[in-house]
Amino acid sequence: MGRAQETFGKKENEKKRLKKKNDKEEKREQRKANAKPGQSLDEMLAYVDENGNISTTPPDPTKKRIIKTEDIRIGIARQEDLPQEDPVRLGTVAFFNDSKGYGFIKDSQTQESIFVHANGLAGGPIKEGDKVNFEVEMGQKGPTAVRVKAASATPPPAPAPAPAAT
Hints:
Keywords: DNA-binding
Helix content: 10-25%
GO cellular component, one term: cytosol
Domain CSD: 88-150
Shape: elongated
CATH superfamily of the domain at 89-150: Nucleic acid-binding proteins
Structural class: alpha+beta
Region (Disordered): 1-41, 145-166
GO molecular function: DNA binding
CATH architecture of the domain at 89-150: Beta Barrel
Number of strands: 7
Radius of gyration: 39 Å
Distance between the termini: 131 Å
Largest sheet: 5 strands, mixed, barrel
């Protein structure tokens, strides 16, 4: 049987391994040379001052603050219930594509553009420039207008009374 042949890759890997071993040995020797034997504990300590910076001097005891354990809160404070606002909003249709069935409504209060799909229409078709009433729900990609109806500028007229029979 013949001896296993050494390839270029094997030689390179062996060189890398030896270089790594030598580097490690050199670093260990440098640490030994730079080590300061006989340091006292005070020389090895580091302190954190009132601003959070690391320093070699101990903190000033006059600046010490006492914190009670009752004052420490883990978590967040409970939020008060916000007053319910009217879910129905008023806006203007900024863009609507009938063939594709989607568009955008500009909210008259917040001036934000809200997506509307043809499935969200409740009161018939809409076109650009129409004033509409709508509600907002969160969709997959953000706020979506639902239950969209054309806003009536004036309330509908009351039915006329029937003529009295004689």
